[in-house]
Design brief:
Blueprint (H helix, E strand, L loop, with lengths): L1 H36 L5 H5 L6 E6 L18 E4 L4 E7 L5 E8 L8 E3 L14 E6 L6 E2 L4 H9 L6 E5 L6 H32 L4 H13 L4 H19 L7 H25 L3 H9 L4 H12 L1 H17 L2 H6 L17 H9 L6 H32 L6
Antiparallel strand pairs: 1-5, 1-8, 2-3, 3-4, 4-6, 6-7, 6-8
Length: 402
């Protein structure tokens, strides 16, 4: 009896240790993501484009420096040239890279009216939040962004003219990747849910219980363990050529990506939905048949609504898998980060965007963890929204779902 008591305590201790270890690892991952990614989170990251527009300009004829003294104070990281009427500061862009940003431009500054040296004939104007890449001079080395705002302002103060200035708009935003992810969620669920739920209904409600049905279930379960990169190869070899033939796509695209994700998700949707159908009491079916309903009416008006919570679980699992999938989408959709998203073209989801950032040299860990936080927020928001809508729907049709 004493040995059994000690044995139970040892097993209980092992259980507690395993639980606390799992919890510690999970919290460590969450804390790492939050601590590294929270500093880059801002609304501009979500709403801005990834690609920035670059401009090269020089001074217009008869433009020259002057005296642009102002009664205004700036921060310690901002430096103002009263000779040129421009204030520059050391900052970080949306990708976490050090840049020089324009903090202020005097209304009469020569930088307010620049001559475009590009293909366009439009005049250019330097304004706040543009990023200065370099300022080139005729008789001196160029002032580069990597040398800092103080060095650039110091050089400008010693010059009466410059050969050209290169600057750009702020890039590095993930708006296109967010739109791509939402497109993939919508397209994939539109394809996978009807097929998966229909297959589950057939297997549980209509299919005969024989060896063939059992083998089919075993094959479906086996598909859940296939590595996603193999599905990606299938998408590249099968769905990409099909979409090229049937649509205006010319290569990997969002439709081929959604078809690939649908194949990945079908086993999960089928098994989860079928398990929810199995827990519906047989008394519900018998009562419906006794009241004169046929098999189809019983299935779609009694059994299916009663299994709604299980179908909701399958939907939530599918959304999480869609947002988190990357290996298959690298082949089926591509890794080109696009701001203008089309279902017939390449693009990147948020998870593939992380892949692209981590394959940079050096890897952009800060932005990758920031995108991870955004993914977690999107998944949580969708889960809460779907659960809220499902509860209202269940209440409306008179079904309680605790």
């Amino acid at each position: 009896m004493l040995n059994r008591r000690y044995s139970d305590k040892i097993l209980q201790g092992i259980t507690y240790l395993a639980s606390f270890t799992s919890l510690f690892v999970l919290l460590s991952i969450v804390m790492f993501v939050i601590l590294n990614g929270v500093k880059l989170i801002n609304i501009d990251l979500i709403t801005n484009n990834y690609e920035s527009k670059s401009y090269i300009a020089d001074l217009k004829d008869f433009s020259s420096p002057g005296d642009f003294t102002i009664d205004k104070t700036f921060g310690e990281d901002t430096f103002y040239s009263s000779k040129w009427g421009i204030a520059l500061k050391d900052d970080q862009n949306l990708m976490g890279h050090n840049v020089i940003k324009v903090s202020y431009v005097h209304p009469d500054s020569p930088f307010k009216e620049l001559r475009n040296k590009g293909v366009s004939v439009l005049e250019l104007s330097l304004s706040k939040n543009y990023e200065i890449v370099r300022i080139a001079f005729e008789d001196a080395p160029s002032a580069l962004a990597v040398q800092g705002a103080f060095n650039m302002i110091s050089i400008l103060d010693t010059k009466d003219t410059f050969r050209e200035i290169e600057y750009s708009t702020t890039g590095g935003g993930i708006r296109g990747s967010i739109v791509t992810t939402l497109y993939l969620i919508g397209l994939t669920l539109l394809i996978a849910l009807p097929i998966g739920i229909g297959a589950a209904l057939y297997l549980n409600e209509y299919a005969p219980k024989n060896g063939l049905t059992k083998t089919l279930r075993n094959l479906i379960e086996t598909l859940t363990g296939v590595p996603s990169i193999i599905y990606g190869l299938m998408g590249l070899a099968l769905f990409v050529p099909i979409t090229i033939q049937l649509t205006k796509a010319t290569g990997p695209n969002l439709i081929s990506g959604a078809l690939t994700l649908s194949v990945i998700l079908l086993p999960v949707i089928i098994r989860t939905t079928e398990e929810s159908l199995k827990v519906v009491p047989d008394e519900y079916r018998q009562a419906a048949l006794a009241l004169g309903s046929n098999k189809t009416q019983t299935t779609f008006k009694v059994v299916l609504p009663s299994a709604f919570s299980g179908i909701l679980t399958a939907t939530l699992l599918a959304i999480g898998r869609i947002i988190g999938e990357s290996a298959a989408l690298v082949f089926a959709v591509g890794t080109a980060i696009k701001d203008q998203v089309s279902i017939f073209d390449k693009s990147t989801s948020l998870s593939v965007h992380i892949f692209a950032m981590m394959t940079d040299e050096p890897a952009n860990i800060e932005l990758s963890t920031t995108i991870s936080i955004i993914i977690l927020v999107i998944v949580l928001s969708m889960n809460l929204t779907i659960k809220f809508l499902s509860k209202r729907l269940l209440r409306k049709v008179g079904i309680t779902n605790e």
